[in-house]
Structures are given as C-alpha cells and as structure tokens.
Amino acid sequence: MELLRDADINPAPLKGKRVAILGYGNQGRAQALNLKDSGIDVVVGLRGASGSARSAEEAGLEVALVDDAASSADVVMFLAPDEALAGIYKEVEARIRYGGAIGFSHGLTIHFDLIRPRHDLDVYLVAPKGPGTALRSLYEQRKGMIALWAVAQDATGHAKEIALAYGKAIGCARAGLIASSFAEECEADLFNEGAVVWGAVPEILTAGFETLVEAGISPEVAFLECVGELKLIAELIEARGIAGMREAISNTAELGAVLGGPRVVDDHVRQKMREVLDEVRSGRFVEALREEAAGGYPLLENARAQARKSAIEQVFNDLKKLGGS
Q1: Residue 110: enclosing H or E segment and its boundaries?
Q2: Which residue did the predictor score with more confidence, 162 or 324?
Q3: 229 annotated ligand binder
Q4: Does the annotation place 250 within a ligand binding site?
Q5: 193 is annotated as contributing to ligand binding
Q6: Where along this sequence does the record place binding of Mg(2+) 1 (predicted)?
Q7: Which of 151, 231, 257, 288 has the fewest CB atoms nearer than 10 Å to its CB?
Q8: Residue 57 assigned as binding residue
C-alpha cells in the first residue's frame, strides 16, 4: 500500500484553477470550505431554489447556479446525493470545459455507468473516509482525514496529479492518500453501509437491547450496556486496533467476547454478508436505490418513522433529558 502525504504531493496542478463544487451537503460544504481556506478559487453550484445558498454565502463562499458554476470552472466536483448525480451531469455536460476534470467522492455513478463522461475529460476520485463534519473539523485543527484516490479516465495525462492536488487541498494528505479504484471504493463502501457499520451494528445494538428488556432488565440499564459503551469500544479500536482493544478490557469482558462473539457472528451471518456484497457487485443495490428515489423514498421514510417511535429511541431521549442535554 502506498500512502502519500502532503510532502509527497505537488499542489501546482490546482494553482490558478477554479473548482466548482456541485452540492452543499455533508461533503460539499466541508470540501468547499477546506478548498477556500487552502487558497483555491472555489464556487458552489446550487439549484435556484436551494435553501443552502444563504448558508454558503454566509460562510464566505461564492454561489452560482449549477450550470453556471460548471461552465466557469476547470475542475467540477460532483458532491450531490448519488441518485441525483446522473441527472446533474446530463444537465451540465455540455457546459464543462473541453479538457477539464470532473471529480467524485464516491465511485457509484462511474463504476455502475450511471454517468459516462465525455472522452476529453479527466475523471478522478477523492473519497474521504468519514463524514464531512469530521473532515472540516480536522482541517480546522490542522489535521486530516485519510482518503482514497483513483483515476477512471486520464484524458490529459494529468488526472493523477489533479486528484492528488485536490486531496491535498481539502486536507486529506495530512493523514494520507491511498491509491484505489472507483470499483474498489464503491463496492467496499456500499458493503460496509449495508452489512457492517451502518447496517449490522445498529441492528445488533437494538437486538441486544430488546433481548435484555424481554428478560426483565430495565430499559435504561439495557441501553447503557448495549448502546452506551459503543463509543468506548470505537475509541479503543481506533487507538489500539482490535487486538489491542481486547487486551485493554477486563478478563471478564474479554472472555465474554471470545465465547459469545463467534456464536452471534457465525457462518450464517458471514453468508448473509456475502449476499449483501453480491447485491452490491451485481448492481441490484444501485437499481433499488434508483427505484427508491423515483418513488419518493417510501422505504426510507417508513424506516425513519419506525426508528423514531422505537423503544430504544425513547430510552435514548429520556436519558438525554436526565443528563441535561
């Protein structure tokens, strides 16, 4: 694995260039502000009715309509939601400068051919491995967030240099840039979202909470045990790794983990994980995402409503009130 840091990267490929950030959500806001603070000429492209325009302007950023922003820039970074990017690209494709560069922070639309870029464009990926809020706060602390980079199309012979300079400008090279591909980044990210951190972990937390409550444990104690300690284990793993985490906890906790963990995450669970990965690689998940968006997100809206009404959410809110926050 090659890890490139600030000292390894030449910032010149972005010098004197204008970067358009299309979208002002979690990543768009953070990357636009980091670019601005790194001395890059940046413009945020938004829809005419976007409520984000005022927020961006108050942050000191230049704002323009999406097609105007794209036509004025040398580099166009697509940071709107995945399901919207193909439509945005179709809208601005003719406005992007010949021989320009387009960038992404997620490989989905390129890997699954939802966007087929013009042949004269450089196409690159810089994918910070964390949320935009953390990317911004780390930058302000003069730290960085590790990121993956890749090139899907090198029309000018300079796509790699632009990608690396971009990663440096948003602060990621302070922590390190790792070479990857659009396919690898996309498949690993979608798999993690469905089968590990964002999918399986909340389900395990909820199942553990419900198991204890069904057995007569008070909801508050069940929540503190099954959910409250999650931050502690995450911090230990970040600082020490999984093996180091095991060594840092008590013998009682470690023995419980050794005896209980493999029974919960068994071959059946691993097979389900393989099925999730197969759904990602086959394109079935992307098709489901497009259908969900086309229908107005009924599945997501229902899931959000159910989550807000759940017992575990009620206990969370009650404990927050008791804690004065």
Answers
A1: helix 108-111
A2: 162
A3: yes
A4: yes
A5: yes
A6: 189, 193
A7: 231
A8: no
The verdict on whether residue 220 carries a ligand-binding annotation is: no
Q: Cite the active site residues.
A: 106
Distance CA 300, CA 293 (A): 10
2 pLDDT exceeds 90?
no
Residue 323 binned pLDDT confidence (cut-offs 50, 70, 90): confident
Residue 71 sits in a domain whose CATH number is 3.40.50.720
Residues in the chain: 325
Domain boundary pick from 131, 155, 180: 180
Residue 48 pLDDT level (bands cut at 50, 70, 90)? confident
pLDDT at 324: 67
What tokens does 38 get? Answer: 């790194």
Tell me how far CA of residue 148 lies from CA of 157, 160, 211, 276, 293, in angstroms: 20, 12, 39, 22, 27
Residue written as token pair 């959410």 = 313
Task: Give the span between the Cα atoms of 325 and 247, in whole angstroms.
Answer: 33
CB of 135 closer than 8 Å to CB of 34:
yes
The whole-angstrom separation of Cα 305 and Cα 44 is: 32
Strands 147-153 and 177-179: parallel
pLDDT (tens digit, 9 = 90+) per residue, 168-209? 999 999 999 999 999 999 999 999 999 999 999 999 999 999
Put residue 23 in one of left, alpha, beta given phi > 0 → left and psi -120 to 50 → alpha: left
Of 149, 180, 211, at which residue does a domain stop?
180
Secondary structure of residue 124 in the 3-state scheme: strand
Pair 213, 293 in one domain: yes
If asked whether residues 173 and 198 sit together in one domain, one would say no
Burial class (CB in 10 A: 0-12, 13-18, 19+), 104: buried
Structural domain of 278: 192-322
**DSSP one-letter string for 169-222:** HTTGGGT-EEE--HHHHHHHHHHHHHHSTTTHHHHHHHHHHHHHHHTT--HHHH
Q: Is residue 185 part of a domain?
A: no
**pLDDT at residue 204, rounded to an integer:** 97
